[in-house]
């Protein structure tokens, strides 16, 4: 989707149309930009930028507090549209998904015709736009979806040699798994473009980078065998919140932790995965990041089990003050448990929380909540995903 949160705000508030909209923390407080409209991006504003820097660049912008329950509801509606075009939909974030359109040509025509139909459905039903990449695999589709934004459709060549040539001029950072630090390492080696990477042999990359080198060799040639719907690539699910001011209030920490866990567990259930390990992460006022982790007694995606164990980690902290607090689960799988007694208890909790998920998806999270959520405004919690 194109500038998803900001586009929803412009849709719901016509007076915002054509103006720079910045969704995130309030200026003057700590926090970051969640999403900015394309008008705001002309000022150099982007996601994860400190909100006060965004205000410095665009003081006349419209700064909006996130309405997560609205964004989640719209996301669900868009995923429902996708499911009418393909039985295999892999949602990877609140505003992004992969669709396997294999065998649907008799229903929807050529890949271009299908992409146009999906785009039109989103526009007509949600008054929003999305950019679509049509490609033989997920890696190429992801790259293509970033082309021609907003409201663009990009079709990747289908022949192997054409794919190699299409990728070659791109910056090496376009490759999945090549982050800022990896890019710096590759650039020191004289590798700045995907084409530079293509010139290296499999043997060299394997010797230099091990398993990651094999992945680099394949991806720079557009080779990605992962099927749509495979969640093995998801290593963890987490949420973080940056306090408006350094917080010394441990009760505030517990309340924030509770709300973050609700989002983590709901996302895990949506993916159909469970975590073996819960981890707590935090930043001190000096910006240094720290973390601790704890193995769960059994893999789970229930908020109760995740919160109970995360709270134990939180209670052990000796920090006098926190700038940021986060929580997540890792070691994800869909393994069945062998402790039958414990499993019955967990299954009961899972059924309850799944029922709440369905209600929230339909009516929003203002309709139902847990006792501890009473009086807490979850829309002011920065639930950034990592």
Question: Gist?
Answer:
This protein has helices at residues 4-12, 38-41, 51-57, 68-83, 105-108, 111-126, 138-145, 160-167, 180-188, 194-198, 202-209, 211-219, 250-271, 303-315, 340-363; strands spanning 21-24, 33-36, 62-64, 89-93, 96-99, 132-134, 153-155, 236-247, 274-283, 289-300, 322-333, 384-385. With 386 residues, it is α+β, with helices and mostly antiparallel strands. The strands form four sheets. The protein has a five-stranded antiparallel beta sheet with strand order 10-9-11-8-12, covered by helices on one side. Strands 2-1-3 form a three-stranded mixed beta sheet, sandwiched between helices. The protein has a two-stranded antiparallel ribbon with strand order 4-5.
Report on the structure:
- This protein has four domains: 4-66, 3-Layer(aba) Sandwich (MutS, DNA mismatch repair protein, domain I), CATH 3.40.1170.60; 84-155, Reverse transcriptase/Diguanylate cyclase domain (Alpha-Beta Plaits), CATH 3.30.70.270; 160-219, Orthogonal Bundle (DNA polymerase, domain 1); 236-385, Dna Ligase, domain 1, CATH 3.30.1490.
- The protein is globular, with a radius of gyration of 22 Å.
- Residues 335-345 have low confidence and may be disordered.
- It is 42% helix and 19% strand.
- With 386 residues, the protein is of the alpha+beta class.
- β9 and β10 form a beta hairpin.
- The longest helix is centred in the last third of the chain and has 24 residues, at 340-363.
- It has a five-stranded antiparallel sheet with strand order 10-9-11-8-12, with helices on one face. Strands 2-1-3 form a three-stranded mixed sheet, sandwiched between helices.
- α13 packs antiparallel against α14 (303-315).
- It has 15 helices and twelve strands.
């Amino acid at each position: 989707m194109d500038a998803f949160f900001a586009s929803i705000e412009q849709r719901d508030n016509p007076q915002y149309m054509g103006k720079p909209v910045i969704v995130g923390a309030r200026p003057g407080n700590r926090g970051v930009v969640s999403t900015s409209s394309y008008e705001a991006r002309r000022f150099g504003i982007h996601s994860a930028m400190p909100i006060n820097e965004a205000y410095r660049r665009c003081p006349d912008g419209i700064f909006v507090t996130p309405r997560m329950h609205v964004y989640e509801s719209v996301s669900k509606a868009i995923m429902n549209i996708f499911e009418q075009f393909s039985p295999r939909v892999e949602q990877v974030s609140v505003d992004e998904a992969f669709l396997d359109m294999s065998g649907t040509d008799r229903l929807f025509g050529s890949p271009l015709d299908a992409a146009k139909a999906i785009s039109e459905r989103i526009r007509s039903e949600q008054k929003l736009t999305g950019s679509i990449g049509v490609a033989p695999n997920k890696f190429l589709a992801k790259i293509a979806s970033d082309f021609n934004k907003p409201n663009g459709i990009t079709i990747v060549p289908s022949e192997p040699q054409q794919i190699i040539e299409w990728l070659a001029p791109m910056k090496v950072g376009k490759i999945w798994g090549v982050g800022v630090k990896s890019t710096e390492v590759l650039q020191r080696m004289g590798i700045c473009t995907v084409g530079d990477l293509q010139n290296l042999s499999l043997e060299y990359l394997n010797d230099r980078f091990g398993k990651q080198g094999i992945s680099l060799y394949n991806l720079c040639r557009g080779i990605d065998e992962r099927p749509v719907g495979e969640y093995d690539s998801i290593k963890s699910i987490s949420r973080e919140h940056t306090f408006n001011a350094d917080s010394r209030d441990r009760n505030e920490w517990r309340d924030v932790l509770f709300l973050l866990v609700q989002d983590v567990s709901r996302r895990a259930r949506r993916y159909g995965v469970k975590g073996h390990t819960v981890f707590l992460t935090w930043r001190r006022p000096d910006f240094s990041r720290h973390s601790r982790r704890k193995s769960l007694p059994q893999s789970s995606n229930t908020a109760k089990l995740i919160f109970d164990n995360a709270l134990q980690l939180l209670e052990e902290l000796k920090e006098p003050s926190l700038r940021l607090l986060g929580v997540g689960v890792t070691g994800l799988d869909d393994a069945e448990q062998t402790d039958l007694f414990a499993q019955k208890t967990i299954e009961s909790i899972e059924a309850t929380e799944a029922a709440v998920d369905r209600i929230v998806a339909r009516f929003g999270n203002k309709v139902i909540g847990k006792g501890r959520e009473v009086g807490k405004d979850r829309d002011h919690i920065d639930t950034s995903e990592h």
